């Protein structure tokens, strides 16, 4: 069963009201807010430390905060490595960086530093409201199968469109990418593919070495094609048709997308950057995992469907062989992206196995009540095909047995 269409304004479920995170932080803060003159801006914080793709989704929350609280002053608390994604963003008035020595710190010590900073700002009267949009470690109860819509749910209010992450490039960035395009003669090629080949999300089996080998194999038989390899690693063997784009910054890949005709992606940061306001809509092929583990499932097509973007420009394949990837791209080159999609696209489905694993993950993390509430959201977001029947039946059986025991106990007491 396909996911229900949520329309242009994504609305969190009624029972998604955050408990203690995205609410007024304290009674003193309320008093302070009312005591201040109407000319003084309300001060708000948004806390999202990592990663690039997740932060891109959170830019739409930042925009919504400004719409819901006109004139407020918004400070974004973010990991130092990812702060550049906010450069030039008119919805962000200040940035507070949390130094992270590694990615895992964003879920542990870095997260605690962020919460401490927010609490200190509240205590000093410099902050009145805060939204913690990062899913881990404190928002897993909002998990609905996809990163974007789970991030939206943490806000607790409708997120209105357009649903294109907001990135604001500088003239220098655009000029640097234009020079890159001239240097590598991109206009001389009929097909220019941006190849995302270094995902950090764990949602794709693609690696830089595998991507480079695929690009060389396709380039050998298709002289009209060039691949721009986007990764933090330099290429082992570059060529006029397999170009190392690691010299560009993450943000500059948005400008690079405007020079491309297609994307081979991994549902990671580069993919989501190409759908931002600074890029352009590209037809794409997404190479994904087939995992049922929590946070390992990914689908650009399903994401687009939920927020009414054009999913027809997305081909998705789970754990494909190199031969299948090459065949798909060759079909795209010889006929069209639409023809390749009809033959190779694999419809993404969140199953009862995904739901059951999410249930037990959330239950272990946040308790039984939170896990049951999460399952209701999960089912509403993904359709009844995802109901974890064994989990729900076990819960119903336990409730029935408790009711029977209670009745027996009352009868025994009355007799």
Word description of this protein:
With 415 residues, this protein is an alpha/beta fold. The protein is 41% helix and 13% strand. The protein has 14 helices and 12 strands. It has helices at residues 27-35, 52-68, 109-123, 147-155, 171-183, 208-221, 252-257, 269-273, 300-306, 322-334, 337-344, 352-366, 368-382, 389-414; strands spanning 9-10, 43-47, 73-79, 94-98, 129-132, 159-160, 191-196, 225-230, 242-244, 262-265, 284-288, 314-318. It has a 6-stranded parallel beta sheet. Strand 7, helix 6 and strand 8 form a beta-alpha-beta unit.
Mean pLDDT: 87
> What is the C-alpha radius of gyration, as a whole number of Å?
24 Å
What is the total tally of β strands? 12
How is the biggest beta sheet arranged? 6 strands, parallel
TL;DR?
The protein is an alpha/beta fold. It has 14 helices and twelve strands.
List keywords for this structure.
alpha/beta; six-stranded parallel sheet; globular; 415 residues
Question: Any chance you could write out the topology, listing elements then pairs?
Answer:
Elements: E1 9-10, H1 27-35, E2 43-47, H2 52-68, E3 73-79, E4 94-98, H3 109-123, E5 129-132, H4 147-155, E6 159-160, H5 171-183, E7 191-196, H6 208-221, E8 225-230, E9 242-244, H7 252-257, E10 262-265, H8 269-273, E11 284-288, H9 300-306, E12 314-318, H10 322-334, H11 337-344, H12 352-366, H13 368-382, H14 389-414
Parallel strand pairs: 2-3, 2-5, 3-4, 7-8, 7-10, 8-9, 10-11, 11-12
Antiparallel strand pairs: 1-6
Helix pairs in contact: 2-4, 10-11, 12-13
């Amino acid at each position: 069963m396909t996911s229900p269409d949520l329309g242009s304004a994504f609305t969190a479920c009624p029972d998604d009201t955050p408990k203690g995170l995205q609410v007024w932080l304290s009674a003193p803060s309320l008093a302070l807010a009312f005591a201040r003159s109407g000319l003084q801006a309300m001060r708000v914080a948004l806390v999202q430390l990592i990663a690039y793709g997740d932060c891109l989704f959170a830019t739409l929350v930042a925009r919504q905060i400004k719409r819901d609280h006109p004139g407020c002053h918004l400070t974004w608390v973010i990991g130092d490595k990812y702060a550049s994604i906010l450069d030039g963003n008119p919805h962000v008035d200040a940035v507070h960086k949390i130094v992270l020595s590694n990615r895992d710190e964003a879920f542990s010590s870095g997260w605690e530093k962020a919460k401490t900073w927010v609490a200190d700002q509240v205590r000093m009267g410099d902050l009145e409201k805060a939204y913690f949009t990062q899913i881990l470690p404190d928002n897993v109860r909002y998990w609905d199968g996809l990163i974007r819509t789970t991030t939206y749910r943490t806000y607790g209010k409708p997120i209105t469109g357009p649903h294109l992450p907001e990135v604001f490039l500088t003239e220098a960035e655009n000029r640097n990418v234009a020079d890159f395009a001239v240097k590598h003669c991109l206009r001389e090629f009929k097909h220019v593919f941006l190849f995302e080949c270094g995902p950090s999300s764990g949602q794709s089996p693609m690696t830089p070495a595998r991507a480079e080998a695929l690009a060389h194999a396709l380039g050998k038989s298709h002289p009209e094609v060039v691949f721009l390899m986007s990764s933090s690693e330099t290429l082992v063997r570059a060529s006029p048709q397999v170009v190392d784009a690691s010299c560009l910054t993450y943000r500059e890949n948005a400008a690079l997308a405007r020079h491309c005709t297609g994307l081979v992606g991994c549902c990671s940061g580069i993919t989501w950057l190409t759908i931002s306001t600074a890029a352009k809509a590209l037809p794409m092929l997404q190479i994904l995992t087939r995992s049922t583990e929590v946070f390992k499932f990914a689908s650009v097509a399903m994401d687009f469907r939920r927020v009414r973007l054009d999913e027809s420009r997305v081909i998705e394949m789970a754990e494909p062989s190199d031969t299948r990837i090459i065949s798909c791209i060759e079909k795209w080159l010889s006929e069209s992206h639409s023809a390749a999609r009809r033959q190779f696209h694999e419809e993404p489905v969140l199953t009862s196995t995904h739901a059951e694993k999410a249930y037990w993950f959330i239950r272990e993390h946040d308790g039984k009540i939170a896990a049951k509430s999460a399952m209701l959201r999960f089912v509403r977001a993904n359709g009844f095909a995802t109901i974890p029947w064994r989990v729900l039946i076990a819960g119903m059986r336990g409730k029935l047995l408790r009711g029977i025991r209670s009745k027996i106990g009352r009868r025994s007491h009355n007799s």
